[in-house]
Amino acid sequence: xxxxxxxxxxxxxxxxxxxxxxxxxxxxxxxxxxxxxxxxxxxxxxxxxxxxxxxxxxxxxxxxxxxxxxxxxxxxxxxxxxxxxxxxxxxxxxxxxxxxxxxxxxxxxxxxxxxxxxxxxxxxxxxxxxxxxxxxxxxxxxxxxxxxxxxxxxxxxxxxx
Length: 161
Fold this sequence. Notes:
Blueprint: E1 5-6, H1 10-22, E2 25-31, E3 37-43, E4 45-46, E5 52-57, H2 61-68, E6 71-76, E7 90-100, H3 107-117, H4 122-125, E8 130-143, E9 149-153
Parallel strand pairs: 1-9
Antiparallel strand pairs: 2-3, 2-6, 4-5, 5-8, 6-7, 7-8, 8-9
């Protein structure tokens, strides 16, 4: 079978970054204890360096799963209101979750960046069970629409490349 993955180019990098910059939520895939997969929706933002972040509750099943197994996947990109959902671009991020404690020197900077993208999350920052996860992307798969598939490296997703 022929490889349908196109060589990564600047247009693919711009599309992938654009999907990340405009995403307000993402589908998060985690592994539960026992290896069962779970997919849930989480709020999504970027830190000041362009790395994905989310604010999550320690009470959530996906948070507990990530504490046990940090490997995860995020899907960003929403289908349009018209047409076939599979023709709209989407980006799958393979990542490792890194929990950022409230007492971390990075916490305030993350909160500032996150609130720019998710201003209503200010309420949740006051709750003791909510904290940030920074996702370290290890690879990405971009489906830019029919016949437009790309593999991207983590560096392809960062601003300034």
